[in-house]
Specification:
Distance between the termini: 88 Å
Structural class: alpha/beta
Largest sheet: 8 strands, parallel, barrel
Strand order of the largest sheet: 1-2-4-5-6-7-8-14
Helix content: 25-40%
Strand content: 15-25%
Radius of gyration: 26 Å
Number of helices: 10
Oligomer: single chain
Length: 411
């Protein structure tokens, strides 16, 4: 009987201890979760502040290739944000892809904010048309964006939807508005990549010497998008491209005209000027013309191997050279310290927010010695900041999880 009483006492004592321990354990877990959430929130807040207060804001695009990763690891301290081209949206709103793990690891190690591109693969118009005409697909796309952003602790995104039907201009603007609202609700940023425009009328048949994007750019309502986005990239490159005769990648006069149009509709403190880091070689044989993009090392090797001396075009403020290979005439236009400085001076003179360079790994060593790309002091007054984080974590979309894959290079 005495033993039974002792056993009962022991059981009661254990029950009392459990009654205290279980709630304490729950409190400890809840406190740990709150601490983790607070740590993530502070990190996000720091990233957002770094992007918004940077002058100039130096954004660099990447596709996660070896050259780009090597450059990122070496020069991350010179950058404000890295924007990998890695997520693409399908017609039903599902967003595929992932941030390259190696790029994400470098960015985290260097404390560099990551703002991936979300684009329509192959810039297929039918993909964007289907997306913009389906409210459900748009909601799904925005949910995917929020999910991936929370999962990878991203600073936000840049939307790079191109070749949009001009008739869908208002639908695209509404989609950007909804995406920006969700990103800002979560304390993240939203940017938009804009194809250069020179007029509200298209095509400009009266400007034969100024190839324009015509219909390709018609769906962008600059004024509305400038109000909705935290900042925009004016993609002032591919002036002459694979579909045209040989010419500058970003001729100064052409860039200035595109910038004049944009500044009349978007505050300069929200504008990033697109800076090309690549060159292009056109091969002409009779009436046939083809072209390929070149990195700085390839341009240098061609100059040395064919013993050519670069020329300078005063109108376009760009370097070029030409050589003959058999019956094929090859013309190379590229960028160098002088042409980069000409365009980067526009960032300073026009009081723009900064620049966006396409793409990391194509540049040569001379680019990193430019005074114009050196990080400046934070601005005394930043433009409107995104809303503070709500603390809401992303949930896994009900649609199937994104499949593995890598986007095709857009340029």
């Amino acid at each position: 009987m005495a033993r039974r009483k002792e056993l009962v006492k022991c059981l009661l004592a254990c029950a009392a201890l459990l009654a205290v321990a279980v709630p304490l354990r729950a409190v400890e877990k809840r406190t740990a979760r709150q601490a983790r959430a607070k740590k993530e929130s502070v990190t996000l807040s720091q990233m957002r502040r770094r992007v918004l207060e940077a002058r100039p804001l130096a954004l660099y695009y990447s596709i996660g290739d070896l050259r780009g990763l090597t450059s990122l690891a070496a020069h991350a301290s010179r950058m404000t944000v890295i924007a990998p081209q890695c997520y693409w949206v399908e017609s039903d709103g599902v967003i595929e892809g992932e941030v390259p793990p190696e790029l994400l690891a470098i960015a985290r190690r260097k404390g560099l904010p990551v703002m991936p591109l979300v684009f329509n693969r192959g810039f297929k118009r039918e993909t964007v048309t289907a997306l913009l005409h389906s409210p459900e697909a748009q909601r799904r796309a925005i949910h995917y964006m929020a999910y991936h952003a929370a999962k990878e602790n991203l600073a936000g995104y840049q939307l790079d939807l191109e070749n949009i039907d001009p008739a869908d201009q208002s639908l695209f603007t509404d989609f950007v508005k909804a995406a920006a609202a969700r990103m800002h609700q979560d304390g993240r940023l939203l940017s938009v990549a804009l194809v250069p425009k020179f007029s509200d009328q298209f095509p400009r048949l009266d400007l034969p010497d100024h190839p324009t994007f015509g219909e390709w750019a018609a769906a962008y309502d600059y004024r509305a998008l400038g109000e909705l986005a935290d900042f925009v990239t004016l993609m002032t490159y591919d002036h002459f491209n694979r579909s045209t005769a040989a010419g500058p990648i970003a001729g100064y006069e052409w860039v200035k005209k595109a910038l004049d149009y944009a500044e009349a509709r978007i505050p300069p403190e929200k504008l990033l000027l697109g800076i090309p880091l690549y060159g292009r070689e056109w091969s002409e044989h009779g009436e046939s013309t083809s072209s390929r993009s070149l990195n700085a090392q390839e341009v240098r090797e061609l100059r040395i191997n064919w013993e050519t001396k670069p020329q300078w075009d005063d109108r376009w403020r760009s370097p070029w050279f030409q050589y003959q290979r058999g019956r094929v005439t090859r013309t190379v236009w590229f960028e160098n310290s002088r042409s980069w400085t000409e365009k980067l001076n526009l960032v300073r003179d026009e009081h723009l927010r900064g620049f966006a360079a396409w793409r990391l790994g194509f540049e040569g060593p001379s680019f990193w010695s430019l005074e114009a790309i050196r990080p400046g002091r934070p601005a005394k007054r930043a433009v409107r900041r995104a809303a503070a984080p709500s603390g809401e974590k992303g949930s896994v979309p009900k649609k199937e999880s994104p499949k593995e894959g890598a986007p095709a290079n857009s340029r």
